[in-house]
Specification:
The structure holds two protein chains of two kinds.
Chain A lengths: L10 H17 L2 H8 L15 H9 L18 H14 L5 H12 L6 H8 L4 E4 L14 E4 L2 E10 L6 E8 L2 E8 L5 E5 L9 E10 L2 E2 L3 H37 L1 E2 L2 E2 L4 H30 L4 H26 L1 H4 L6 H13 L4 H15 L2
Parallel strand pairs in A: 1-4
Antiparallel strand pairs in A: 2-3, 3-7, 4-5, 5-8, 6-7, 9-10
Chain B lengths: L6 H17 L18 H16 L20 H10 L8 H14 L2 H12 L5 E4 L15 E5 L2 E8 L10 E7 L9 E7 L8 E6 L8 E12 L3 E2 L5 H12 L23 H10 L1 E2 L2 E2 L4 H23 L16 H20 L17 H14 L4 H12 L7
Parallel strand pairs in B: 1-4
Antiparallel strand pairs in B: 2-3, 3-7, 4-5, 5-8, 6-7, 9-10
Helix pairs in contact in B: 1-3, 4-5, 4-6, 7-8, 7-9, 8-9, 9-10
Classes of the chains: A alpha+beta, B alpha+beta.
């Protein structure tokens, strides 16, 4: 194994993770989240985009959006394993913000070589971005886009764009005469229309984005190769977010079943409750170990990064589903209500579970790598 | 790992490596069993005992124990010796129960003279040890043991029945949990060491129990008025349960004294039942005119197992990075549960992969992998039952790590 034994998770990474945990514990308790995002309970509600811009600005000022930007273009150039530690804490707080979206765009831009430098410099200065690379069927194959570009003009619609209304820039993939290409587009550019989706998750916003004769400059470099290279980081960081959120679900549920009494015992006394909660913990730990393994592979052993990242996201999607189900079930009647906080995480996790590929999809990709490609 | 070594460990590692280069035993003259707990023949035992003795004489076994009890007085060097022995693909050590369970227990709870007498021959493997905890009526509820020791002057008279006793057919000594007071469940237990080989036919009977696989491997041991000296008692009367916790803590790898561990020798007859070999099996098996490895459902299930297997390995890696853990026992206490359930599910999928051929067992020339998979599947239930069933493991994790209320 050519990876460092400690995943490369050193002093700096440890301090970053610890400070992020304190930051959210101090500034963003779950009741604040509930007040902010759950004001309107109507099932037909239009998609809101409620978030705390003041706190977000503090995160930007702390340099968190520039962590993954290479030092050569003004960023901090931190390894993926350190960024994963931060993202785990964002997931634990379920903090609505465009951090993951911006990090995702950062990894794609960084894989573009010199073509991505100018855009990366903008991110280093505090601008936010999101990927607009998915088609209407929600295909995760990098070549699938419903946007075309002819002579520097974008037309078509990008779907399932994450936190679209929170970001300044979009990194758009489009088909051209000479194959797939990437474009860096301002969200307020002429011809860009952001149409919010009405989604289940209250902690994110999502939209489809229409491009009507939008002038755009193509980024040099191979778009399919850049996307392919960035995907392991994208999967791994979402898995890190899921890990943090699942740990919140576990601890919150453990607290509840330690307090709530029925049949003269706290619910956690009963093995029908205790053993599945242990299984939630086992899944979280598997997921967390696979996240740091994948992050470390991206940093130090890129040839194995894709396989390890598929493992991390497959494990994370299963963890999200199981932890969410148990958290609502073991809160009983109150867990079925809007006033109980567990639904916020339940919905965030159901979104994360399928985003950038669900467990079955990742296992199918992993099988292609391990069964068919391995000689 | 070596970058974190102390100067003593660096020097010791070099010494071990050099010694192993010229002293690692050659290919065994007999077929070796899959684990030390299945040693059946005298020839197997002789070969393995010779290996343990030479490794002990070289200072690779028991090296963290004081010199007075047969150790070398080193500091955290057993880990280094283990890494080097496994890295060199040596045979395993036959006296596993002695090294992993009896030695730390005797060391922490035995009288000085007893330790000095017993431990050197335990480390060298000259005396094989076995463990007398479980009984027909005391499995998961270990504290309900009924085998009774009755005081008779400075002697004790033992009567009762112990089961699942691996290696008892070769053992000189047994660590044993006995009832000395019927009125108190936990405080009525005391802990002894008993010389069983010397007493065969004179108060001790060892009989083989046949496993679900058809193999022998463990035994039942019957005590009929066996008289032992009070000096064989460990710790105080009525403290047996606390002493047993020292044994179990070390069995689970969570004790202070690292268990000497060797292994990795590839024998021609062994077939590892892991996911790599499962995938090989699926490639080589034809179902519906195509390789089983092309079946999307089987692919998904095999990948689930790969993910669990890699996840367990990465848990063990993360357990050494304190910044990535919330609770010191959380990962450690999952090891046995996960390893045993992954082994069971891997073997179960292998049996599905080969379809009708899963009916063929060890004696059949057409059995895939010589029938190792059905044997592994059946054997896996030994792993999910022994040393605390999976149900007990989930109780321990729920109570000690998550802090949930203790259930019965």
């Amino acid at each position: 194994m050519s990876q460092p034994d400690n995943f490369g998770f050193g002093e700096e990474a440890s301090l970053l993770k610890e400070s992020a945990r304190k930051f959210f514990a101090e500034h963003f308790a779950t009741d604040k989240l509930h007040k902010m995002v759950a004001a309107d309970h109507s099932p037909e509600r239009m998609s809101a985009c409620a978030w705390d811009r003041t706190l977000w600005q503090q995160m930007v000022d702390l340099g968190w959006t520039a962590l993954a930007v290479p030092e050569s273009v003004g960023g901090l150039g931190m390894p993926v394993v350190a960024v994963a530690g931060l993202v785990e804490e964002v997931g634990r707080a379920a903090f609505p913000c465009p951090l993951l979206a911006t990090l995702n765009a950062t990894y794609v831009l960084a894989a573009c070589g010199s073509g991505g430098a100018a855009a990366l410099a903008e991110i280093a200065e505090g601008l936010t971005a999101s990927l607009a690379i998915t088609n209407s069927r929600g295909s995760w194959a990098v070549a699938d886009t419903d946007v075309q570009c002819v002579q520097g003009t974008l037309n078509g619609t990008a779907w399932f764009v994450q936190d679209a209304r929170k970001v300044d820039r979009l990194l758009v993939s489009a088909q051209t005469d000479s194959g797939l290409a990437l474009y860096w587009v301002a969200t307020d550019a002429a011809g860009v229309t952001i149409v919010p989706d009405a989604i289940v998750d209250l902690t994110r916003d999502q939209a489809h984005v229409r491009f009507d004769n939008v002038s755009a400059q193509e980024l040099t470099g191979s778009a399919p190769a850049a996307l392919q290279q960035a995907l392991p980081a994208i999967w791994t960081l979402l898995a890190a977010d899921i890990t943090g959120a699942a740990e919140w679900q576990l601890q919150t549920t453990v607290d509840y079943v330690g307090t709530r009494q029925q049949f003269d015992h706290p619910l956690g006394y009963f093995q029908a409750v205790k053993h599945p909660l242990v299984d939630v913990m086992v899944l979280i730990d598997q997921c967390k170990s696979l996240v740091y393994n994948a992050a470390c592979a991206i940093d130090t052993e890129p040839t194995r990064a894709a396989a390890f990242a598929h493992m991390a996201k497959a494990s994370a999607s299963d963890t999200a589903a199981y932890a969410s189900g148990r958290s609502v079930q073991y809160h009983g009647g109150i867990g079925f209500t809007w006033e109980c906080f567990v639904h916020l995480y339940f919905k965030r996790q159901k979104h994360s579970q399928l985003l950038w590929g669900d467990a079955a999809w990742h296992r199918a990709q992993l099988a292609n790598l391990l069964i068919d490609n391995a000689a | 790992m070596s970058e974190q070594d102390t100067p003593e460990q660096v020097e010791f590692r070099q010494y071990c490596r050099k010694w192993l280069q010229s002293n690692k035993p050659g290919e065994p003259p007999v077929r070796l069993p899959l684990s030390p707990l299945e040693i059946m023949t005298g020839a197997q035992l002789t070969y393995l005992q010779a290996w343990q003795k030479s490794a002990y004489d070289a200072g690779l076994i028991g090296c963290d124990y004081p010199v007075a009890v047969g150790g070398r007085g080193r500091s955290d060097c057993q880990r280094v010796a283990n890494e080097e022995m496994v890295g060199a693909r040596t045979p395993f050590l036959p006296n596993v129960i002695g090294l992993g369970m009896a030695a730390p227990t005797v060391f922490y709870h035995g009288q000085t003279a007893l330790k000095e007498r017993l431990l050197p021959r335990l480390f060298s493997g000259e005396d094989i040890w076995c463990q007398g905890f479980s009984e027909p009526g005391a499995g998961s509820d270990l504290a309900s043991v009924q085998t009774f020791a009755e005081r008779k002057g400075d002697k004790w008279v033992i009567n009762g029945h112990k089961v699942w006793t691996s290696l008892a057919h070769f053992a000189e000594w047994m660590i044993i949990l006995l009832r000395t007071d019927r009125a108190h469940k936990y405080d009525g237990l005391s802990y002894f060491v008993v010389p069983i080989r010397a007493a065969l036919g004179k108060g001790v009977t060892v009989r083989p129990l046949i496993k679900i696989t058809g193999e022998t491997g463990f035994n039942e041991v019957i005590f009929d008025n066996l008289e032992v000296d009070d000096s064989y008692r460990l710790d105080e009367l009525g403290k047996g349960w606390q002493v047993a916790m020292t044994t179990l803590l070390h069995e689970r790898g969570a004790g202070d004294l690292k268990t000497p561990h060797s292994g990795g020798m590839k024998s021609k007859s062994t077939h590892a039942t892991n996911t790599a070999n499962l995938i090989e099996l699926a490639r080589a098996t034809v179902r519906n005119g195509r390789p089983a490895a092309d079946d999307p459902l089987l692919r998904d299930r095999m990948m689930q197992l790969v993910i669990r297997e890699v996840g367990l390995g990465q848990n063990q890696r993360r357990a050494r990075v304190s910044a990535l853990q919330d609770h010191p026992l959380r990962l450690l206490l999952q090891n046995k549960l996960l390893a045993s359930e992954i082994a069971q599910d891997t073997a179960a999928v292998a049996l599905e992969v080969v379809g009708a051929s899963a009916s063929l067992y060890l004696g059949d020339d057409h059995a895939p992998a010589g029938g190792q998979w059905p044997m592994a599947y059946m054997n896996s239930y030994g792993m999910t039952i022994a040393a605390g069933t999976s149900e007990v493991q989930r109780n321990i994790l729920g109570e000690r790590v998550l802090g949930l209320a203790k259930s019965k």
